[in-house]
Every structure is written in C-alpha cells, then in structure tokens.
Design brief:
The protein contains 13 helices and twelve strands. By secondary structure, it is an alpha/beta fold.
Length: 296
C-alpha cells in the first residue's frame, strides 16, 4: 500500500525542522509537545526514514531530512496554490466563461459594457465568445455548452434558463445612398419594395411583431432575402438589392454607400436584449449574471 502524505503532518515536520526544537514548534503551531512528538515519530515510521538527529533538546535534520524538507515545502506551497484557486473559483473570480451572443448585442455595445465591468471584478477569468442565434443559445445553455448568453428572445418559462432584460435597440431604415441620398423614403415608396431581413426579425418570435410595426407605419415589405448578420444586410443594401431595417447602433460601422434614416411615423418597434444563464450555473456565471451594469 502506498503512503498517503497528510499536508498537516508536513506542516508539523516543517515547523520542527525550522525551529529545531519540539517545544518551540509546538508553541508556534498552538499544540502541546507530546502530540507533536508523536506526529513526527509516526511520520518517520511511515516513511521508513530518520528525519532528525536527536541531541538533548535540539533536533537537527539528517541528510534525508534535508532533502525531505525541500520536497515538503514544495508540496505545501502547491497545496496552498490549489486551495487559493479553489476559493477563487468558488467566489466566481477564476475559471472559464463561454459566452454566446447575437450580433445585435455586439453592435449595440452591450457585450462590451458587460465584459469591461466583469474584467474589473474578475480579471483572471478566461472568456470565449460564440456567435449564436437566440434559440441556439437557449439550447446550449441547457446542455452546458455555454455559460452566458446575450439574446434577443426571452427563454420560455421552465426552460432551465434564467434571463434579465439589459438593453433595448431602436431601428433605422438602411437605404442605398447612391440612389436615395439621405432622404428618408416615404411609406408609399417602401410599400411592396424589396427588403432584406435580419435573422432576428425573420425568426418566428419576432416576425409577427416586425410586420405589425411595418403595417402601423403604412407599408408592407416584400422580404426577398435574409442576411446572416446585420453587416451582411448592409452590404446587400449597398449592392442595391433592397432596403433593410437595422439597429440604430450600426451607424458607426455601416458601409459608406449606405445611409441610415428614420422609418415612417408609426414604426415604434424596438428589440430587447436579454442576458441569459443556465440553471444550475457555475459560480463564475452567477457572478457575471449578477453584475449591476445598468439597462440601456
């Protein structure tokens, strides 16, 4: 049977080796002398080594004892690092976080704000970002493939996913500037015109809301295309394939040939951004989810 080294016994041995006296070591460890002496004798018996030369009240390390002291100190230092790391993980200050996001949360600056705030309180956490649609995030949160999500859709009740609303995006009409300049087309121009849909607006959870908002503004779009992400939609607008209704925050990164203008009066639809986490979740995910970053 192999020897199981007890870290506590190693601490006793190191104290005796450094003090060269059982009495002083016992006082340092807040023990009485007899139990400490028995622990050292038991350690020597288990190892099959004489660790000390005993001369009157002074103990001096043998050659084997000196070598064992170096190893004992190394093991204790490693054990302390492991204990500190475990405490940090339990506190949500260390570990890894896989975050899913919809492009709209990136373009709105929501993800950046949350990452910046989290880095201030947990700089040692490793973070990986994955671009995922809202439905994919909900599925991967339940399966444990991701820890946190930034999504447009609120998860269904009882889905094993918690959520909180953390932002809301307004929309603009993306038009090809070479054709329309920067003048906003009227509802009459937009009625029956070709449109490029974004994944969020084409999704079942938002499609009805999207068309209802268009109808309230006096036009019905002819959705001919669907873009993989907002930037792709803007490139398609720049190519003259149609109009697109996109997040207002894309103003800063749109192509030069695209103008973002106001939609006709009556279009009052906005899209929420929700922060998601799986249930149960890791301490680091709970800490991220609980940040007070504010709602925009």
């Amino acid at each position: 049977m192999g020897l199981m080294l007890d870290l506590q016994r190693l601490r006793y041995f190191v104290a005796v080796a450094e003090e060269e006296n059982v009495g002083r070591a016992a006082e340092r460890l807040h023990l009485t002398q007899s139990p400490l002496s028995r622990q050292i004798q038991s350690l020597e018996a288990d190892l099959g080594l004489a660790l000390f030369h005993r001369a009157k009240k002074r103990l001096r390390l043998t050659a084997a004892g000196r070598q064992f002291l170096a190893e004992a100190r190394s093991l204790l230092a490693h054990g302390e690092r492991v204990e500190q790391q475990a405490r940090a993980i339990a506190a949500g200050s260390a570990g890894a976080l896989i975050i899913g996001y919809v492009p709209g949360a990136i373009h709105a600056g929501v993800v950046t704000r949350w990452l910046r705030a989290f880095r201030m309180v947990a700089p040692d956490v490793d973070i990986m970002l994955k671009k995922l649609r809202s439905a994919e995030q909900e599925s991967q949160l339940r399966s444990g493939e991701i820890d946190i999500g930034f999504a447009h859709a609120r998860p269904a009740l009882g889905a094993g996913v918690s959520s909180r609303a953390i932002g809301r995006e307004s929309f603009k009409l993306a038009i090809p500037a070479h054709r329309y300049g920067r003048a906003a087309p009227t509802a009459r121009v937009l009625h029956g015109a070709r449109f490029i849909a974004l994944p969020g607006t084409a999704a079942a959870g938002h499609k009805d809301e999207f068309f209802a908002a268009c109808a309230a503004a006096g036009f019905e779009p002819d959705v001919r295309y669907e873009a993989a992400d907002p930037l792709a939609a803007l490139e398609m607008v720049d190519a003259g394939l149609g109009f697109a209704i996109v997040q207002a925050s894309l103003e800063r990164i749109k192509p030069a040939g695209v103008a973002l203008v106001d939609l006709p009066p009556g279009f009052d639809w906005t899209m929420a951004i929700h922060l998601l986490r799986g249930e149960p979740c890791t301490p680091v995910a709970a800490r991220f989810f609980g940040l007070d970053v504010g709602v925009e």
